[in-house]
Amino acid sequence: MDLVEKTQDQQHPQYRRDRATVDTLLAGETTDQNLSELARLIIRYRGFPGARDIQRDLEKALQKWNLTAETLYEQTRKIHAKGEVYRKQKSDQEDWL
After folding, report:
1. CB–CB of 34/25 below 8 Å?
2. Which of 16, 32, 45 lies closest to 86 in space, CA to CA?
3. Contacts of 10 (CB under 8 A, 6+ apart)
4. Residues 6+ positions from 76 with CB-CB distance below 8 Å
5. Which residue in 48, 63, 53 sits closest to 20, CA to CA?
6. Backbone angles phi, psi at 56, to 5 degrees
7. What's the pLDDT tens digit per position in 42-92?
8. What are the domain boundaries of the chain?
């Protein structure tokens, strides 16, 4: 196996759904829901060998909202401590990938 094969980008199984979410984030404001989604996706794609466009756009969303990853995580910890951000969604499907 040569170096090109080892470094080939992978397709994430949640790419299509996540791409739509990222597009919504880029067009949206800093709501609790959007901040939580941004943090969730940053964690999902951290170190993932692919989906470079999503990774770039997640960074753009951080910059748009004048946040660093640390300040985002600080805010989302407070949001999740209240336990309300995902209760409004009525979906039985878990999204852990």
Report:
1. yes
2. 32
3. 48, 49, 50
4. 35, 36, 39
5. 53
6. -65, -45
7. 999 999 999 999 999 999 999 999 999 999 999 999 999 988 777 655 555
8. 13-82
Output the CA–CA distances (angstroms, integers) from residue 14 to 19, 21, 31, 41, 82, in the order listed: 8, 11, 23, 10, 27
Query: Which H/E stretch holds residue 93?
Result: none
CA 41 to the chain's CA centroid: 2
**Placement of tokens 């993932």 in the chain:** 48
- Where do we find the tokens 């640390």? 70
Q: Are 44 and 14 in contact (CB under 8 A)?
A: yes
What is the distance of C-alpha 84 from the center of its chain? 18
Q: DSSP alpha helices (H): ranges in the chain?
A: 3-6, 15-27, 32-45, 52-64, 69-82
